[in-house]
Amino acid sequence: MRDFLKLSATDLAAALAAGTYTSEQVTQGFLDRIATFDERVNAFVTVDAEGALSVARAVDADRAKGVELPRFAGVPIAIKDNIVIRGMETTCSSRILKGWRPPYDATVIEKIKAERMPILGHTNMDEFAMGSSTEHSCYGPTRNPWDLDRIPGGSSGGSAAAVAAFFTPWALGTDTGGSIRQPASVNGIVGAKPTYGYVSRYGAVAMASSLDQIGPFARTVADAAALEALIGGKDPLDSTSLPDPIPDYAVELGKGIENMKIGNLLPTFDEAAFEPGVLDAYKSTLEQLSAAGAEVIDIKMRYFDYALPAYYLIMPAEVSSNLARFDGIRYGIRVVPESGPVTSETVMASTRGAGFGDEVKRRIILGTHVLSAGYFDAYYGSAQKVRTLVLQDYSEAFAKVDALVSPTSPTVAFPLGARLEDPMSMYAADIATIPPNLAGLPAVSIPIGLSQNLPVGFQITTPQRADALMYRVAAAVENQIGVNIAENCPAVEWEEK
């Protein structure tokens, strides 16, 4: 494998600026690797070789002329298939949106284009971001580069697998209940969910608007922090966007965690839900935190037991509302019934029946039910009360500690197909990642070791607007471990035919 494919985005940017490589050379290298190996992984649903190389060549030409360029100009990136790119087919990995080419860019895409980063293409995902394994896609499942018979996590599994397989130095995903952090965990990379509102959601096809957040995948904490800083900031097109200026995360990364109080959330959960190898890696990391000068304090949250069921009432309710627009009338595919009258109602029913997959239908039905007149207060209203209690839990915890930690996922990557017939076991993969979404908090997963030769993730959560602190703690853990887990991925050894 060519050396520059293994570089972090930060190191790659420095090498491009120094003239060690050209952007065209680097971009073509990633495109060649995708062309050679993505048939194994199925990480990409669209590859825009022409567009990416056009940007790369323009960057090289300006660099040769001495034009001042943005820091990451010429560094390629991959984008999840629910973040719209003008003129590039955007389907959310659903049949119902096949052929749709957006007439506009998402705000984060505008910022990436302003940085002059070649966009390699759109990555595979669970349909409309509904899933924890990237098996619910009209393009077929994505496979984990660590073990091609296992899931890459979800719903942003394509982006995570693309980074882990060295198809791209970094990527964007979306996180509604763990859809960045859980795939980051099982792929041995870094994945972060920013504070809700720090990164504009304009142009991210909505699943659950009060929970969704765009965030970065990378192989290092420094890269993830840099990408969040690049895409973050106030956006007048997003009414939930926060006015805060994005801090310089890089300044925080080397400060360490000496005398910091770190809350261990493991007492909150039933340890039997976690695989022994995950617990071993996690407890070893707690010892590393203590060795770095932090005080580790056990924290037991009172209401976290209710977070998972509350999430699976709030999220489907918002799904039911957001996906009502996909009706076969305005855009996307249109399916006319084969028999009977052709009316707007029958076209809508035929289109949604043919266009949506089973998991999307399941969540729409559940959400519509909990929003119905006879059940709204009992289900949706009660779930929102639980959300307030989860916020209260966090408020009380952060009065005692600076940051909270837990395993990201209770297991390593499980085999493809193992949980498709049991949705409840699939949902349980998110027990540790859902609470930060309910509270709008920043949270990051970083790799800490291996179990069964598969990666284990470590989740760090900090108060709202404390993303800089989150990256500071993550960098300290990364430094203590002293091993780049991502570089141990078997994908490094894949040989070209």
What would the keywords be for this entry?
alpha/beta, globular, 11 strands, single chain, 11-stranded mixed β-sheet
What does this protein look like?
Helix 4 links the parallel strand 2 and strand 3 (119-123). The chain is of the alpha/beta class and 497 residues long. It has an 11-stranded mixed β-sheet with strand order 1-3-2-4-6-5-10-11-9-7-8, sandwiched between helices. The longest helix has 23 residues, at 376-398. Helix 2 (23-41) packs antiparallel against helix 3 and helix 10 packs across helix 12 (358-371). Helix content is 38%, strand content 11%. It is built from 16 helices and 11 strands. The relative contact order is 0.14. The protein has helices at residues 9-18, 23-41, 49-65, 107-114, 157-164, 181-187, 221-231, 249-252, 276-291, 307-322, 344-355, 358-371, 376-398, 423-427, 434-439, 467-481, and strands spanning 44-47, 77-80, 119-123, 170-174, 190-193, 214-218, 261-264, 295-298, 403-407, 443-451, 454-461. The model has no long low-confidence stretch (mean pLDDT 96).
Regions with little confidence, pLDDT below 50 for 5+ residues:
none
Main sheet?
Answer: 11 strands, mixed
Radius of gyration of CA atoms, rounded to a whole number: 22 Å
> Which structural class matches the secondary elements?
alpha/beta
**Rough shape?**
globular
Helix segment count? 16
Which strand order does the major sheet show? 1-3-2-4-6-5-10-11-9-7-8
Which range does the strand content fall in?
5-15%
What is the H/E order? HHEHEHEHEHEEHHEHEHHHHEHHEEH
Distance between the termini: 12 Å
What assembly state would you assign to the polypeptide chains in this entry?
single chain
Let me know the average pLDDT.
Answer: 96
Helix percent reads: 25-40%
Count of extended strands: 11
